[in-house]
């Protein structure tokens, strides 16, 4: 009756299902099959309606409400043909999860029968009774409703389910007063602001009609797979998403034998099934491979427009969870499911541009384009330097705290890695300012003399939190569990600010009669002189970096509790309201929700630690102790002198465990007034109290007889797939 041993037997007997498709089926056959995409719209919408919708999607122009009825009707017919019985406004509340409220297409007709109905107004707006979502004080209880609104730029899709399909419509989620209660609203607002100022810069470079500029996001998702028999035997994994107990396996990741190794057969079956589901949903899954830790893997879809990438990313996580279950596994998105083993991140590859330009962060090979690139690149440097704290808070969570700053993930300090070539160019620019009076020298970044940059700076620095990788910046601090919206909102907003700054400086200089090339030269030199401190090409894991970073004036916000106040500084509030992304109240609400989520997460973990420590670990230890004690008595009875070393070996950690459990219990019983104080208490009292329980329990794991130990071990969970 040992659940762990039963799980091992069950895992051994388990036969994974075959992949759910015919191997001859080409990805192209099914790509976008369940998406109400451009080609479906072209076929099904009246020409003028189609044109109007496409203009909104591609040019960012205002949605004409008159088209809604026609779109709704076409969407309904398409969905019914695809077997949908219901439709759902899908939204992204501040829990970080995906929410959906389903409604049937059927409505009663006057003669008592029913008919399928779906009108424009139902497409455009919904009213979920969503009063239980965190709102950080944004909604009064008398108006607890939130409203959902159709995001026409993110395509509707069919979510298949053996029990009936659903038409899903991506929406924003706002309060009655229009304040954002979700992650999508600020994403769209910030994207719009960034695009506007990027277009100003492009116009200065002579592109009269640059077109609508959008942000691109390519998220790389890391995750763990664990056999579900083990998962279900670990209450900590089940409830907290991470193990709160467990000693490191004798063989860890030190051999680097898993990274990019052959994908295990069972996992490959899972990957193929997930990719097929993703393809149907129009999600461009591309790269898949083993990650550093045993049991850890990665998927990277092709980059897409920010808000679509964010929606797809959420859908990807849901799909992974569902498909993993079908394959008898649990997919773990937690940033640190296993202590002492590599954690999981979600690198956010960020750039901006459009169909015409591609990424505006491509160095290019003509001097004129390089100058333009350098302005965009300098704008990033300025943005990251001025707002490193905001980038830090955009990835802050109780779960990601276990990863950031640990020796495998980027440090909590946000710095930019430019690569040797680009760093050198900016060094020259910095010096160029001092010698610009010399006129046209080789070092001056005039349009004529600019060095041609390679499109792919060969070297990579994995220890940097924000690295230039050839045609984009890669933000490596985001956690595997979080939505990409949070970092994307900050990136878009701080870029809007920086591009606004660049455009304004250049516009004014030109107005004053300064030659454009010279104005660009000055702008670049000024930016790199003032903000070059954020550029760091060294080893971000080294012990000296935090010291050097401090002398450079870069913030090192180690934990979520340190980072959260960044949301409500005067500077941050001013920035976000200037670009119409958040108002004061929205910022405060996000701060409060951040605190609340942090406190709740740690409270759940602390309670689980107490429960598992008391009801699983301690009883196993007691049984083992009793066995030894019985043996000691038996030996005495047989007239032998018993060796009691073993008895004290198990008894010592047992009394440490008793003490630690009592301390944790009393800490959990304390009442703390005020959310910030409660968060500090969680960090400084609960987490250490949990750690003390774990230390004693892990010591017992190494002593207690294997057949008595109740929790699947790291070795079993990580190596048996
Ligand atoms: P690596 O592991 O070397 O960082 P991956 O191939 O795993 O590279 O992931 C790179 C990610 O960056 C992919 O999602 C890719 O689509 C994305 N990406 C490539 N170019 C851009 C770009 N210009 N803007 C945003 N994302 C990009
Ligand atoms: Mg990467």
Automatic annotation (TrEMBL):
Q: Which domain of life is it from?
A: Bacteria
GO BP term, pick one: glutamine biosynthetic process
GO molecular-function term, one example from the UniProt record: glutamine synthetase activity
* Similarity field: Belongs to the glutamine synthetase family.
Q: Which residues form the GS beta-grasp domain?
A: 85-178
Q: Which residues form the GS catalytic domain?
A: 190-617
What is the name attached to this protein's record?
Answer: Glutamine synthetase
A Pfam family (short name) is: Gln-synt_C
- Species: Williamsia limnetica
